[in-house]
Amino acid sequence: MGRKKPLVVVTRKLPDTIETRMMELFDVTLNRDDKPMTQTQLANAVKKADVLVPTVTDRIDARLLSQAGPQLKLIANFGTGVDSIDLGTARTRGITVTNTPGVLTEDTADMTMALILSVPRRLAEGERLMRSGEWQGWSPTSMLGHRIWGKRLGIIGMGRIGAAVAQRARGFGLAIHYHNRRPVEKSLEEKLEATYWESLDQMLAQMDIISVNCPHTPGTFHLLSARRLKLLPAHCFVINTSRGEVVDENALTRMLRDGKIAGAGLDVFEHEPAVNPKLLELDNVVLLPHMGSATIEGRIAMGEKVIINIKTFSDGHPPPDRVIETML
Ligand code: 8YV
User: Fold this and answer.
1) Which domains can be identified in the chain, with CATH numbers?
2) Residue of 152, 160, 290, 322 marked active site
């Protein structure tokens, strides 16, 4: 007699191959129409599920977890960031949390690089001009942007994604600077020819482009606060593919509008899916709908990781991608 299959509730539509495999392995409830679940629907889910598979769009807070039945033992997050999950409450309730690290590093780094190139070179503005039908032809002084080669890139958060961004950026002639809680290993620092800044404030004042690549934790909420944004030189560009909450979006918007920051490339927003409407009016920003990791390959790899975490856990072993609060 095999073990009883765990009841797994998946909150959003996942790639077909992943859902098919999940149906083979688990007693699974899928979300066929992909509508985000309400808090009431999530509460009903955690009352009966052995395993919940949420995404960044679900708020797994203390209130929700207080409604979970004793059978809920695993939250296998479909995504790397776990800021939407109250890890402390999960721990006190004996619920293991896993995520999907590593498999979206390269895709997110590609998208970061795309924004680093797009904003100073006015790519989206140029594209809008073409579609408007108002292009008058080439002119020596039209659509002038700023050169990438030779500029200083300041990476906030030199983890997997930060390092993958740095690796790409070197190929575009950017000098790599970074701020982290601790310097990375000497060998990586040397490979990237990266300069460590213990003081974020001091780094900000010297950079041409800033890339936010740290996770959102209580410690990084509004790390780029109004005060810190004012330290940036007016010619600086801000790129964020991490989490909107790391940057004070209102302060950033005001400074972009007033020309105190040259431009921004944002894939993430503080109150997703809402976007500060004033951002939409600005030409010096490139806005993307949280698509940094949105590749078919990445989504399948994320799903495979979720499956491995659930299967290992339900077979009675520690799952490989356990999230421990002190890791963040
Ligand atoms: C994911 C992300 O698409 O993994 C993350 O932390 O931000 C995204 O790239 C999303 O989280 C899926 O839940």
Assistant:
1) 7-103+295-327 (3.40.50.720), 105-287 (3.40.50.720)
2) 290
